[in-house]
Design brief:
Length: about 280
């Protein structure tokens, strides 16, 4: 398509404007009426959903527990228990990308960059695409820069969302017991970003090694090289709890094998272990 001069673009605009003004409909009241009808419809829809949720959800008999689940969910959930130490807070799915950015920019000095500055730049660039790409061509095949840039942003957002959804974390009892037990000895020699360990000792960086459960269990129990054995300080149950915690945090494997060969989850590995 040949490029038009500024004068030709203005003349074309004036012709189109004159045609629309003579044949089109004015903004008031037509466009305003349409917006009012659509907005009113969505307000009624929200009110109707709220009424359906309230009517179909039960209150239950025990005030400490949630009521029966209705068509759109229970009226309220179980009452919060302030004595629970094993809760692992995670964001809603649409905030997983920010959750992953927090993991990437774990340095406290970079939190503002990762959670505020970078998302703001993304939004600004997406808003600015129509102003940066002024071509009149509408076919996607003729707009490789705009399509490629927008596509890359979408892919990056989806990847961060997925990474945030599967990010390893200290879940359930493993988060409290495992970290407290491992903090007794591991912090002086090892580095583990998830728990804030940043030791300058001789131990390997666990973020790089990513030990699985069996390897962590063997090293803690028997030691190797400069690492001592801890079987004289911890009983077998505590060693299994620490090994499971480290394996789940480093993503080296969340499943463990308890004594006797029976498989157990991270929560089960620390069950019954008293807090230090």
């Amino acid at each position: 398509m040949p490029r038009l001069t500024a004068r030709e673009r203005r003349e074309s605009y004036l012709r189109e404007y004159a045609y629309q003004k003579s044949t089109g409909k004015p903004f008031f009241p037509y466009a305003l009426l349409h917006d009012t009808i659509v907005n009113f419809f969505f307000v009624l829809l929200i009110v109707a959903l709220a009424v359906i949720w309230y009517v179909t959800s039960g209150t239950g008999h025990d005030p400490n527990h949630g009521g029966a689940s209705g068509w759109l969910g229970p009226r309220y959930e179980d009452r919060a228990d302030p004595a629970v130490e094993t809760y692992d807070p995670r964001p809603e799915w649409y905030f997983f990308f920010l959750f992953e950015l927090l993991r990437i920019f774990s340095n406290p000095n970079l939190i503002l960059l990762g959670t505020i500055i970078i998302p703001t730049i993304w939004i600004g660039l997406l808003i600015g695409i129509p102003f940066l790409d002024r071509t009149r061509e509408r076919r996607l095949s003729r707009r490789p820069i705009a399509v490629g840039f927008a596509g890359a942003m979408c892919v990056l957002l989806l990847v961060l969302t997925y990474k945030g959804s599967v990010a390893p974390g200290a879940s359930a009892a493993t988060g409290v017991l495992g970290q407290k037990l491992s903090n007794e000895q591991c912090t002086t020699c090892h580095t583990l970003k998830e728990t804030g360990w940043n030791a300058s000792g001789p131990g390997p960086n666990l973020n790089s090694v990513k030990p699985n459960y069996q390897l962590a269990l063997d090293r803690i129990t028997n030691g190797k090289g400069g690492m001592p054995s801890f079987k004289s300080q911890f009983d077998q149950k505590k060693i299994e709890c620490i090994a499971t915690y480290i394996a789940s945090i480093t993503n080296g494997g969340s499943e463990s094998t308890a004594a006797g060969g029976a498989p157990s989850s991270p929560t089960q590995a620390c069950a019954g272990v008293p807090l230090p």
